[in-house]
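Can you make up a protein sequence with its backbone structure tokens?

===
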Amino acid sequence: ILNSVDLEKLKMTGAGRAMAVLTSGGDAQGMNAAVRAVTRMGIYVGAKVYLIHEGYQGLVDGGDNIKLAHWHSVTNIIQLGGTVIGSARCKAFTTREGRLAAAFNLVKRGITNLCVCGGDGSLTGANIFRSEWSGLLQELVEKGRIAETMAKQFSHLNIVGLVGSIDNDFCGTDMTIGADSALHRIMEIVDAIMTTAQRLVAAKIKFKHKHIIAISHLFLHYIVLT
């Protein structure tokens, strides 16, 4: 946990830099809190922060999908479900041409720091994008879309991945963003059913890996009942 002295040292350390945040894949509760935290911390350290709407699709399409954020851009969103900046699955980003368009949209805004909140597929895509970055910039230079000086200036792309998934199926974290909320929703619904249920009731829980979240729920519910 950062104290006030540590926070003061961080102030303006990001001046002159630009970063962007997007949410991708299936939305999950907690994504808005993550977007808010990244946005406000980026602004606090003096960086330009952009919000990319509609996930990788917005990154590929560019235009109004990539908007400069201000402190109040993320006010009053943490209590909302899903993601206020939208999320979309994007076939275009799985292609070289799609990633080329995404690279161009970042470079022309001077963005070399990208925060991706999503699941396995989203973070895998982010890693591929990072590994191809220098090659994508070189291709943009060869096609005359950006200058050589710009390619050198923005030659490195930093990626930060936040695991947003209700499935809780990603290594490196005990609880993914959204998994805890999903478990509590299940518990609330089962509790509501049990209040008046006089017979055996089967509740279907549908997730990517049903057994993981279902077993977690049954274990937690057993603790509550006993």
